[in-house]
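Lecture notes, unit on protein representations.

Consider one protein chain, 238 amino acids long.
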Amino acid sequence: MAFGPNSSPVLSVVIPTLNEANQLPLLFADLHQWPSQIEVLIVDAGSSDKTKKVAQLSGARFFRSPSPNRGAQLREGASLASGAWLLFLHADCRLPKKWYLRVKKIIKSPIADQKAWFFDFRIKGERIDYRLLEIAVHIRSAIAKRPYGDQGLLISKHLYNSLGGFSPIHIMEDIDFIQRIKCIAPLKRIAMPIYTDGRKWANVNIIIQAIRNARLRRRWRRGEPTSTLLKEYYKGKG
């Protein structure tokens, strides 16, 4: 497999970044399992590290987002993608071995393009509260059909465009888009895990953070600016 532009790639992977030079090589190694040409688009929010160099050396396409927020980055990447299918991933995620077999099977199935697909959330690490969080996310996503951005999103470009794509907002862009998907299309499990590094949770009280996140979601639904909510989100995690 090789990264790079292709006249008609089956799959385009869109990854928003901000100072992800250390994480990208690990994700690129996973993406290299794809058995044919794959398009990888890095849409950056103004990194000060070597994110651009890492992306370009890998063969990924690198773009600066005209508006440095994740919703805008995802939207920009999708607009530039050439693939019939889009896979949205966070830069700090890891895919399981042979992930491509399951994704290729989904893409080839007759009515898969009428659905949106997500991975099962997993955290690397042995803490009990990690397992409890995984269970809570499974209930929320698999049963309530509310997966979040850190679970990835596989969707045909036709369906993505018909929904209007990601909104260019600072936070809650994943919830906003999932809500619109649910109105017209089923959300299905890919039935494979996607891993997030336990280090990002190491200094976080998961219960307290869950309460804070729920409050932020309520405020967002009431119409508060996402730029304000983003600052409070990271302040709470710091």
